[in-house]
Amino acid sequence: MAIKTRITEMFGIQHPILQGGMQWLARAEMVAAVSNAGGLGFLTAVSCCSANELRGEIKRTRDLTDKPFGVNISMLPVLMPGDLTDKFMDLVCEEGIPVVETAGRNPESYVPKLKSAGVKLIHKVPAVRFAKKAESIGADAVTVVGFECGGHPGMDDVPSLIVLPKAALALNVPVIAAGGFCDGRSLVAALALGAEGILMGTRFMASKESPMHDNFKQWMVEAQETDTLLVERSIRNAARIMKNEAALTVQRMEGEGATLQDLLPVIAGSVGREAYFSGDINLGTIACGQVVGRIHEIGSIQEIIDGIMADAEATLARLNVLNKG
Question: Are residues 85 and 122 in the same domain?
């Protein structure tokens, strides 16, 4: 089944399915698998310590796929110092990467450089006001995340069902839906609400190509939608993570008035990296969306995307029957 939207046309992909930036996980194997399956994969620059390391990861991805893929570049200074952001932006332009996804801060200062190099810009936001700003500074598409999403859903606590159609009505550029999407039914729902594609992170974590330890994958298969926590609200950087001992520690510390410096030993990305690969599910704060409660099996990325499209076709067929009735 083929679903054509402005997103599939813009990036030359078969399906309107994008893979979110996932620190430590979105390396060449996962990204290439998404692109080979007809979606659009994104390398996560913050997983690399230098521009040379990212260049190597781009080369490895190109060795594994001849399909389009992008690079996710965080705009959060705590994750990516400005000079490193500059180097990553220069690199994607030099390498002819077709699309960059940004999030965290306004990427306006980089827009002229990206445009001159022919690089499309997707900016990820948690609210309509930020989506309109992204469009105004030249973003080619905007990803809108709902309250359900893993990672950073913003501070407004508005779910995809509300923020997505508002954004689609407010913008002229294509809107990509993120937060709560994992199958064909949710893809069709996103399209019905005005989106032209979906972006998934949690669903791709639970894939055979995901490099995280099998302990985490098993936890995801058994988890319910109530097995995540929203933390870091006290430092105005709300994050939805899996409910584990580290998450409960952060929750307790925030209740006791902890500062960012107090929290860093628990929430630092390096701790999460150690957890991912050691298999200690209680060690770090791990981004995870509420959609984990709808994930019941670990498949290959090809199987996941094929399943989504088959499910979307069946869903549309059922709706067509209802329409005829």
Answer: yes
CA distances (Å), origin 109, targets 94, 105, 236: 18, 11, 24
- Report the C-alpha gap between 140 and 144 in whole angstroms: 13
Number of H helices, E strands in the chain: 14, 10
| Residue at 308 is within a domain | no
**β-pair partners for 70:** 42
Range of the domain at 229: 214-290
Pair 170, 245 in one domain: no
Q: In degrees, to the nearest 5, what angle opens at C-alpha 98 toward C-alphas 103 and 41?
A: 65
* Whole-prediction pTM: 0.96
Taking a C-beta distance cutoff of 8 angstroms, is the pair 303, 313 a contact? Answer: no
Tokens of 220: 């995801």
| 142 sits in which H/E element | strand 141-145
User: Is the confidence at residue 285, as pLDDT, over 70?
Assistant: yes
* Residue 86 φ then ψ, to 5°: -60, -45
